[in-house]
Write a structure and sequence with these properties.
With 331 residues, this protein is an alpha/beta fold. The protein has helices spanning 9-21, 28-31, 47-57, 80-87, 100-109, 168-185, 190-214, 231-236, 255-267, 282-291, 313-328; strands spanning 40-44, 61-65, 91-94, 114-116, 222-225, 240-243, 272-275, 294-297. The chain starts with 8 loop residues before the first helix and ends with a helix.
Protein backbone atom coordinates (compact mmCIF):
# COMPACT_ATOMS: atom_id res chain seq x y z
CA UNK A 1 0.00 0.00 0.00
CA UNK A 2 1.39 3.36 -1.00
CA UNK A 3 1.13 6.14 1.55
CA UNK A 4 -0.79 9.18 0.38
CA UNK A 5 1.63 11.91 -0.55
CA UNK A 6 0.57 14.83 1.60
CA UNK A 7 1.34 18.41 0.74
CA UNK A 8 3.87 19.77 3.24
CA UNK A 9 2.42 22.62 5.28
CA UNK A 10 5.25 24.86 4.12
CA UNK A 11 4.32 24.19 0.51
CA UNK A 12 0.67 24.92 1.24
CA UNK A 13 1.60 28.15 3.00
CA UNK A 14 3.65 29.01 -0.08
CA UNK A 15 0.67 28.36 -2.34
CA UNK A 16 -1.54 30.60 -0.23
CA UNK A 17 1.15 33.29 -0.24
CA UNK A 18 1.42 32.89 -4.01
CA UNK A 19 -2.33 33.45 -4.35
CA UNK A 20 -2.04 36.62 -2.33
CA UNK A 21 1.04 37.79 -4.26
CA UNK A 22 -0.80 37.28 -7.54
CA UNK A 23 -3.25 39.95 -6.44
CA UNK A 24 -0.75 42.72 -5.76
CA UNK A 25 -1.51 44.36 -9.08
CA UNK A 26 -5.19 44.94 -8.34
CA UNK A 27 -6.51 48.42 -8.91
CA UNK A 28 -7.15 51.00 -6.22
CA UNK A 29 -10.89 50.52 -6.65
CA UNK A 30 -10.59 46.79 -6.04
CA UNK A 31 -8.24 47.29 -3.12
CA UNK A 32 -10.80 49.44 -1.37
CA UNK A 33 -13.60 46.95 -2.03
CA UNK A 34 -15.44 49.44 -4.24
CA UNK A 35 -18.00 47.39 -6.09
CA UNK A 36 -21.31 48.97 -7.16
CA UNK A 37 -22.57 49.13 -3.58
CA UNK A 38 -19.22 49.30 -1.85
CA UNK A 39 -18.91 45.52 -1.83
CA UNK A 40 -16.14 43.59 -3.57
CA UNK A 41 -17.39 42.41 -6.99
CA UNK A 42 -16.48 38.72 -7.28
CA UNK A 43 -17.13 36.57 -10.35
CA UNK A 44 -17.06 32.79 -9.77
CA UNK A 45 -16.86 30.27 -12.61
CA UNK A 46 -19.34 27.73 -11.18
CA UNK A 47 -21.02 26.64 -7.96
CA UNK A 48 -18.07 25.24 -5.89
CA UNK A 49 -16.12 28.47 -6.49
CA UNK A 50 -19.23 30.60 -5.84
CA UNK A 51 -19.83 28.79 -2.54
CA UNK A 52 -16.29 29.51 -1.32
CA UNK A 53 -16.50 33.18 -2.27
CA UNK A 54 -19.89 33.61 -0.57
CA UNK A 55 -18.94 31.72 2.59
CA UNK A 56 -15.64 33.57 3.02
CA UNK A 57 -16.74 36.95 1.69
CA UNK A 58 -20.01 37.19 3.59
CA UNK A 59 -21.63 40.63 3.48
CA UNK A 60 -18.50 42.25 2.08
CA UNK A 61 -18.77 40.65 -1.39
CA UNK A 62 -21.27 40.52 -4.24
CA UNK A 63 -20.79 37.18 -5.99
CA UNK A 64 -21.97 36.36 -9.51
CA UNK A 65 -21.57 32.87 -11.03
CA UNK A 66 -20.90 32.40 -14.76
CA UNK A 67 -22.68 29.01 -14.66
CA UNK A 68 -26.41 29.20 -14.03
CA UNK A 69 -28.09 26.52 -11.88
CA UNK A 70 -28.98 23.46 -13.95
CA UNK A 71 -26.30 24.04 -16.60
CA UNK A 72 -23.66 21.32 -17.01
CA UNK A 73 -20.51 23.40 -16.32
CA UNK A 74 -18.23 21.43 -18.66
CA UNK A 75 -20.38 22.54 -21.62
CA UNK A 76 -20.64 26.20 -20.63
CA UNK A 77 -20.36 28.86 -23.32
CA UNK A 78 -19.73 32.45 -22.28
CA UNK A 79 -21.98 35.22 -23.62
CA UNK A 80 -20.55 38.63 -24.62
CA UNK A 81 -22.49 40.15 -21.71
CA UNK A 82 -20.82 37.74 -19.27
CA UNK A 83 -17.42 38.51 -20.79
CA UNK A 84 -18.02 42.21 -20.26
CA UNK A 85 -19.14 41.70 -16.67
CA UNK A 86 -16.13 39.49 -16.05
CA UNK A 87 -13.81 42.31 -17.06
CA UNK A 88 -15.40 44.63 -14.47
CA UNK A 89 -14.83 42.19 -11.58
CA UNK A 90 -12.62 43.05 -8.64
CA UNK A 91 -11.78 39.37 -8.15
CA UNK A 92 -12.31 36.28 -10.33
CA UNK A 93 -12.35 32.82 -8.72
CA UNK A 94 -12.22 29.90 -11.16
CA UNK A 95 -10.82 26.41 -11.68
CA UNK A 96 -8.51 26.23 -14.67
CA UNK A 97 -8.90 23.08 -16.75
CA UNK A 98 -12.59 22.46 -16.05
CA UNK A 99 -14.30 24.92 -18.39
CA UNK A 100 -12.32 25.86 -21.53
CA UNK A 101 -14.64 28.80 -22.32
CA UNK A 102 -14.03 30.27 -18.85
CA UNK A 103 -10.26 29.77 -19.11
CA UNK A 104 -10.24 31.73 -22.35
CA UNK A 105 -12.54 34.50 -21.05
CA UNK A 106 -10.48 34.94 -17.86
CA UNK A 107 -7.25 35.15 -19.85
CA UNK A 108 -8.73 37.91 -22.01
CA UNK A 109 -10.54 39.77 -19.22
CA UNK A 110 -7.64 41.90 -18.02
CA UNK A 111 -8.66 41.35 -14.39
CA UNK A 112 -5.56 41.41 -12.21
CA UNK A 113 -7.01 39.70 -9.14
CA UNK A 114 -7.53 36.19 -10.50
CA UNK A 115 -7.60 33.13 -8.25
CA UNK A 116 -7.07 29.74 -9.91
CA UNK A 117 -8.23 27.00 -7.53
CA UNK A 118 -6.14 24.43 -9.41
CA UNK A 119 -2.98 26.26 -8.31
CA UNK A 120 -3.91 26.10 -4.62
CA UNK A 121 -3.74 22.32 -4.16
CA UNK A 122 -2.02 19.37 -5.77
CA UNK A 123 -4.02 17.93 -8.66
CA UNK A 124 -3.88 14.24 -9.54
CA UNK A 125 -4.63 12.18 -12.63
CA UNK A 126 -7.51 9.71 -12.35
CA UNK A 127 -7.45 8.30 -15.84
CA UNK A 128 -9.10 5.43 -17.73
CA UNK A 129 -6.10 3.14 -17.34
CA UNK A 130 -6.49 2.81 -13.60
CA UNK A 131 -5.16 5.21 -10.98
CA UNK A 132 -2.33 7.52 -10.13
CA UNK A 133 0.15 5.22 -8.40
CA UNK A 134 1.94 8.14 -6.78
CA UNK A 135 -1.08 8.74 -4.61
CA UNK A 136 -2.05 5.71 -2.57
CA UNK A 137 -4.46 6.29 0.26
CA UNK A 138 -3.71 6.38 3.95
CA UNK A 139 -7.25 5.27 4.75
CA UNK A 140 -7.24 2.21 2.48
CA UNK A 141 -7.79 -1.18 4.02
CA UNK A 142 -4.70 -3.22 4.74
CA UNK A 143 -3.60 -5.07 1.64
CA UNK A 144 -5.60 -2.73 -0.60
CA UNK A 145 -4.54 0.31 -2.55
CA UNK A 146 -6.87 3.26 -2.28
CA UNK A 147 -7.39 4.06 -5.91
CA UNK A 148 -9.87 5.66 -8.18
CA UNK A 149 -10.38 3.79 -11.39
CA UNK A 150 -12.65 5.32 -13.92
CA UNK A 151 -12.96 7.07 -17.19
CA UNK A 152 -12.59 10.72 -16.40
CA UNK A 153 -13.15 13.81 -18.47
CA UNK A 154 -10.51 14.88 -20.95
CA UNK A 155 -8.62 17.35 -18.80
CA UNK A 156 -6.28 18.75 -21.39
CA UNK A 157 -2.59 18.04 -21.79
CA UNK A 158 -1.90 17.72 -18.06
CA UNK A 159 -4.45 14.94 -17.66
CA UNK A 160 -5.17 16.32 -14.18
CA UNK A 161 -8.61 15.66 -12.71
CA UNK A 162 -10.20 19.03 -11.80
CA UNK A 163 -12.99 17.68 -9.50
CA UNK A 164 -11.02 18.59 -6.36
CA UNK A 165 -14.01 20.04 -4.43
CA UNK A 166 -15.40 16.51 -3.89
CA UNK A 167 -12.50 15.90 -1.48
CA UNK A 168 -13.24 18.12 1.57
CA UNK A 169 -9.56 18.23 2.52
CA UNK A 170 -8.51 19.54 -0.89
CA UNK A 171 -11.45 21.94 -0.95
CA UNK A 172 -10.23 23.32 2.40
CA UNK A 173 -6.81 24.03 0.88
CA UNK A 174 -8.50 26.00 -1.90
CA UNK A 175 -10.63 27.85 0.68
CA UNK A 176 -7.45 29.09 2.39
CA UNK A 177 -6.14 30.46 -0.92
CA UNK A 178 -9.45 32.17 -1.73
CA UNK A 179 -9.48 33.70 1.75
CA UNK A 180 -5.95 35.05 1.29
CA UNK A 181 -6.97 36.50 -2.09
CA UNK A 182 -9.98 38.35 -0.66
CA UNK A 183 -7.83 39.72 2.18
CA UNK A 184 -5.37 41.10 -0.37
CA UNK A 185 -8.09 42.58 -2.58
CA UNK A 186 -9.99 44.17 0.32
CA UNK A 187 -7.62 44.69 3.26
CA UNK A 188 -10.17 46.78 5.19
CA UNK A 189 -12.14 43.58 5.88
CA UNK A 190 -9.19 41.19 6.12
CA UNK A 191 -10.00 40.15 9.69
CA UNK A 192 -13.52 39.09 8.70
CA UNK A 193 -12.25 37.12 5.70
CA UNK A 194 -9.71 35.36 7.91
CA UNK A 195 -12.36 34.50 10.52
CA UNK A 196 -14.78 33.20 7.86
CA UNK A 197 -12.02 31.17 6.22
CA UNK A 198 -11.09 29.55 9.52
CA UNK A 199 -14.75 28.68 10.21
CA UNK A 200 -15.21 27.17 6.74
CA UNK A 201 -11.98 25.16 6.96
CA UNK A 202 -13.14 23.87 10.35
CA UNK A 203 -16.46 22.69 8.85
CA UNK A 204 -14.65 21.03 5.93
CA UNK A 205 -12.25 19.28 8.32
CA UNK A 206 -15.26 17.96 10.27
CA UNK A 207 -16.89 16.79 7.02
CA UNK A 208 -13.69 14.97 6.06
CA UNK A 209 -13.81 13.15 9.42
CA UNK A 210 -17.47 12.21 8.82
CA UNK A 211 -16.58 10.64 5.47
CA UNK A 212 -13.51 8.88 6.86
CA UNK A 213 -15.47 7.36 9.75
CA UNK A 214 -18.61 6.69 7.74
CA UNK A 215 -16.82 4.80 4.96
CA UNK A 216 -14.25 2.97 7.07
CA UNK A 217 -16.08 -0.35 7.31
CA UNK A 218 -18.16 -1.32 4.27
CA UNK A 219 -19.05 -4.62 2.62
CA UNK A 220 -17.81 -3.33 -0.75
CA UNK A 221 -15.19 -0.72 -1.70
CA UNK A 222 -16.33 -0.29 -5.33
CA UNK A 223 -18.98 2.05 -6.71
CA UNK A 224 -20.19 2.54 -10.28
CA UNK A 225 -21.17 5.98 -11.53
CA UNK A 226 -22.23 7.56 -14.82
CA UNK A 227 -20.00 10.57 -14.13
CA UNK A 228 -16.44 9.69 -13.18
CA UNK A 229 -16.03 12.85 -11.10
CA UNK A 230 -15.33 11.16 -7.77
CA UNK A 231 -11.67 10.20 -8.17
CA UNK A 232 -10.44 12.44 -5.34
CA UNK A 233 -13.23 11.31 -3.02
CA UNK A 234 -12.54 7.66 -3.82
CA UNK A 235 -8.83 8.08 -3.27
CA UNK A 236 -9.21 9.97 -0.02
CA UNK A 237 -11.40 7.27 1.53
CA UNK A 238 -9.93 4.13 -0.01
CA UNK A 239 -12.71 3.40 -2.51
CA UNK A 240 -12.68 2.31 -6.15
CA UNK A 241 -14.63 4.43 -8.63
CA UNK A 242 -15.77 2.83 -11.89
CA UNK A 243 -17.13 5.26 -14.48
CA UNK A 244 -19.66 3.79 -16.92
CA UNK A 245 -18.92 5.76 -20.05
CA UNK A 246 -16.15 8.10 -19.10
CA UNK A 247 -15.60 11.42 -20.74
CA UNK A 248 -19.24 12.44 -21.15
CA UNK A 249 -21.90 11.43 -18.62
CA UNK A 250 -24.47 11.57 -21.44
CA UNK A 251 -22.57 9.28 -23.86
CA UNK A 252 -23.48 5.67 -24.52
CA UNK A 253 -20.97 3.12 -23.19
CA UNK A 254 -19.74 0.36 -25.47
CA UNK A 255 -21.30 -3.13 -25.15
CA UNK A 256 -17.87 -4.36 -24.03
CA UNK A 257 -17.78 -1.80 -21.22
CA UNK A 258 -21.29 -2.75 -20.09
CA UNK A 259 -20.29 -6.43 -20.01
CA UNK A 260 -17.13 -5.55 -18.05
CA UNK A 261 -19.18 -3.63 -15.49
CA UNK A 262 -21.72 -6.45 -15.15
CA UNK A 263 -18.88 -8.85 -14.30
CA UNK A 264 -17.30 -6.32 -11.94
CA UNK A 265 -20.61 -5.79 -10.11
CA UNK A 266 -20.82 -9.51 -9.34
CA UNK A 267 -17.18 -9.82 -8.36
CA UNK A 268 -17.02 -6.70 -6.15
CA UNK A 269 -20.41 -7.06 -4.45
CA UNK A 270 -21.74 -3.86 -6.04
CA UNK A 271 -25.39 -3.15 -5.25
CA UNK A 272 -26.01 0.24 -6.86
CA UNK A 273 -25.37 2.24 -10.01
CA UNK A 274 -25.13 5.98 -9.36
CA UNK A 275 -26.34 8.73 -11.66
CA UNK A 276 -26.25 12.51 -11.19
CA UNK A 277 -28.85 15.26 -11.17
CA UNK A 278 -27.53 17.31 -14.14
CA UNK A 279 -27.33 14.41 -16.62
CA UNK A 280 -29.64 11.69 -17.93
CA UNK A 281 -30.11 8.57 -15.81
CA UNK A 282 -30.78 6.43 -18.91
CA UNK A 283 -27.38 4.69 -18.95
CA UNK A 284 -27.46 3.97 -15.22
CA UNK A 285 -30.96 2.51 -15.48
CA UNK A 286 -29.95 0.40 -18.48
CA UNK A 287 -27.00 -1.12 -16.61
CA UNK A 288 -29.07 -1.59 -13.46
CA UNK A 289 -31.80 -3.42 -15.40
CA UNK A 290 -29.24 -5.74 -17.02
CA UNK A 291 -27.54 -6.55 -13.72
CA UNK A 292 -30.42 -6.42 -11.25
CA UNK A 293 -28.80 -3.50 -9.43
CA UNK A 294 -30.47 -0.51 -7.80
CA UNK A 295 -29.96 3.11 -8.88
CA UNK A 296 -29.31 6.12 -6.68
CA UNK A 297 -27.93 9.67 -6.88
CA UNK A 298 -24.29 10.63 -6.36
CA UNK A 299 -24.13 14.36 -6.96
CA UNK A 300 -20.87 15.80 -8.35
CA UNK A 301 -21.97 19.16 -6.94
CA UNK A 302 -21.27 21.15 -10.06
CA UNK A 303 -24.45 23.13 -9.45
CA UNK A 304 -27.38 23.33 -7.04
CA UNK A 305 -30.90 22.95 -8.47
CA UNK A 306 -34.37 22.07 -7.16
CA UNK A 307 -33.47 18.43 -7.86
CA UNK A 308 -30.34 18.55 -5.68
CA UNK A 309 -30.41 16.48 -2.50
CA UNK A 310 -29.58 19.47 -0.32
CA UNK A 311 -29.53 23.27 -0.36
CA UNK A 312 -25.76 23.79 -0.28
CA UNK A 313 -22.38 22.05 -0.51
CA UNK A 314 -22.49 20.54 2.97
CA UNK A 315 -26.05 19.19 2.69
CA UNK A 316 -25.40 17.59 -0.70
CA UNK A 317 -22.08 16.08 0.44
CA UNK A 318 -23.77 14.54 3.48
CA UNK A 319 -26.47 13.17 1.19
CA UNK A 320 -23.71 11.68 -0.98
CA UNK A 321 -22.18 10.09 2.11
CA UNK A 322 -25.49 8.49 3.12
CA UNK A 323 -26.04 7.16 -0.40
CA UNK A 324 -22.50 5.75 -0.52
CA UNK A 325 -22.92 4.11 2.88
CA UNK A 326 -26.20 2.54 1.76
CA UNK A 327 -24.75 1.32 -1.56
CA UNK A 328 -21.48 -0.01 -0.12
CA UNK A 329 -23.09 -1.72 2.88
CA UNK A 330 -21.75 0.37 5.74
CA UNK A 331 -21.20 -1.77 8.86
Amino acid sequence: MNARRLIPSAALAGAVALAATALTGCSGAAASGAGKDGRLAVTASFYPMQFLAEQIGGDHVAVVSLTKPGVEPHDLEITPKQTGRLGQSDVVVYLKGLQPAVDEAVAQSGVKAVVDAAALTELEAHGPSGHDHAHGDAHAHEGEEGHAEGHAHDHGESGADPHLWLDPAKYAEVAKGVGAALEKADPDHAADYRKNTDELVGKLTALDAEFKNGLQNTASRTFITTHAAFGYLAERYGLDQEGISGVDPESEPSPARMKELQELAKKENVSTVFFETLASDKTAKSLATDTGLKTDVLDPLEGITDQSQGADYFEVMRSNLKNLQKALGSK
